[in-house]
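Appendix B, record 7
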Amino acid sequence: MRTTFVRMMHYKCRQGIYPFSNVKRFEVPEDKVPWNVEYPEYEPVKYTAPVLKGKPWADPEIEDVSFKPNWNSFDEKVNRKSFMSDYIINEDGYPLNPVGRTGIIGRGLLGRWGPNHAADPIVTRWKRRTTGALEIDKNTDKPILEFVAIQRQDSKEWAIPGGMVDPGETISTTLKREFMEEAMNSLGKDDAEKKELEKSIREFFEKGEEIYKGYVDDPRNTDNAWMETVASNFHDEHGSTVEQITLTAGDDAYNVKWITVDKNLNLYANHNEFIKETVRKHNAHW
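Structure tokens (predicted):
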């Protein structure tokens, strides 16, 4: 991954107050982000959110003598491998963020030490006129994409409807499950309705194209815990499948809707970059 691109992916996780806390990040100038650059003044606060204590899906503290993770590998069903490269374990036994300093140590709001794996389904269609013809931007002379976006309950920012990969779960399963939960409210339906919902989109979610795999500039990242994702595009060229999808906000989504794609998007974390890459693959308007 190009260095300049990585730096773009490590900006929001160095800003101000850590989410849902009063903990201020230690300032990390751009030139002090890499671990191999000396920064003797660096004294970040250690913070792990109290809400993680006792959660079955969260790791214990590093100091817990019963906690013996297999770093940089599959640890039973937990994937502790990074898409970036093998990460360093420091002398105190803590994994180090592969991109560099964030201004805070500990786990923050993240369940796992080291990489926390997610999957982001980018569901797109062409914007069309009432006649069914493609909407073409008059300045770029290119067709316009729309994608399904959710408004997050926590920050109220618009985002791709993704979520965490469960232990032992395949990425393809996560992509479909998260879309169903966040954009179609599958958790609010009974078993029969859920089965019918899954059947209606099963074939559509078998034809995704990987857009990005790697580090995410998530505001929850710390020096010792960080987000990584696989973002895949599921494009409905003719609009025949998505016409049957009823969007209903569910799980941790506050709202859900189709959003028109252009360069003025301002999405959660570095989701803008995922959408921009999707636009490039479809030669669409930006």
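Remarks on this record: Helices lie at 3-8, 171-183, 191-201, 271-282. DSSP finds four helices and eleven strands in the chain.
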